[in-house]
């Protein structure tokens, strides 16, 4: 297993923690050198906070860990392509490199809808690598949303039968 796959597996472990909490299974780890300095997973539903994305949580922990808002020598591994908010936080915290698992067709800002991370109009750009353990990362999300849709359909059916 190569280095990127190893750290993506750790991000997947974080995504599984989110899934256990009925959160969208997205996980993130931040690495300095060869050491994980921060971990995060989605907590939007748990905390009822729009900003409680895996990347934001991990960035906050990493800054606290190293005692600086500048994460210039850090790499961020995340299971899903960063959204605009997370991409902005990545740029503002000066992360050196971003590695993500699967693309986000609805909100991806690391190449899918736009690429904020390499936009030269900003004063900082990141190296970006996509598709690391893509199938595994995508499967987590596909399975989660499939089960969620089935649950909602079942609840709708029960409610409809109760009204008859």
UniProtKB/TrEMBL annotation:
InterPro entries: APOBEC/CMP_deaminase_Zn-bd, CMP_dCMP_dom, Cytidine_deaminase-like, MafB19-deam, tRNA_aden_deaminase. Gene3D superfamilies: Cytidine Deaminase, domain 2. It comes from Pallidibacillus pasinlerensis. Its cofactor is Zn(2+). The active site is at residue 55. Catalyzes the deamination of adenosine to inosine at the wobble position 34 of tRNA(Arg2). Pfam families: MafB19-deam. Zn(2+) binds at residues 53, 83, 86. Homodimer. Keywords: Hydrolase, Metal-binding, tRNA processing, Zinc. Its EC number is 3.5.4.33. Belongs to the cytidine and deoxycytidylate deaminase family. ADAT2 subfamily. Binds 1 zinc ion per subunit. It catalyses: adenosine(34) in tRNA + H2O + H(+) = inosine(34) in tRNA + NH4(+). The keyword Signal does not apply. This is tRNA-specific adenosine deaminase. Residues 2-120 form the CMP/dCMP-type deaminase domain.
């Amino acid at each position: 297993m190569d280095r990127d796959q190893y750290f993506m597996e750790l991000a997947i472990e974080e995504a599984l923690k989110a899934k256990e909490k009925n959160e969208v299974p997205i996980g993130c780890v931040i690495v300095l050198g060869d050491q994980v300095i921060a971990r995060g997973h989605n907590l939007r539903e748990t905390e009822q906070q729009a900003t409680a994305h895996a990347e934001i949580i991990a960035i906050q922990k990493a800054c606290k860990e190293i005692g600086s808002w500048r994460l210039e020598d850090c790499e961020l591994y995340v299971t899903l392509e960063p959204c605009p908010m997370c991409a902005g936080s990545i740029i503002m915290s000066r992360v050196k490199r971003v590695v993500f698992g699967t693309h986000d067709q609805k909100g991806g800002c690391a190449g899918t809808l736009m690429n904020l991370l390499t936009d030269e109009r900003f004063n900082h750009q990141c190296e970006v690598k996509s598709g690391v353990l893509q199938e595994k990362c995508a499967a987590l999300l596909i399975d989660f949303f499939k089960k969620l849709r089935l649950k909602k359909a079942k609840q709708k059916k029960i409610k409809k039968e109760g009204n008859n």
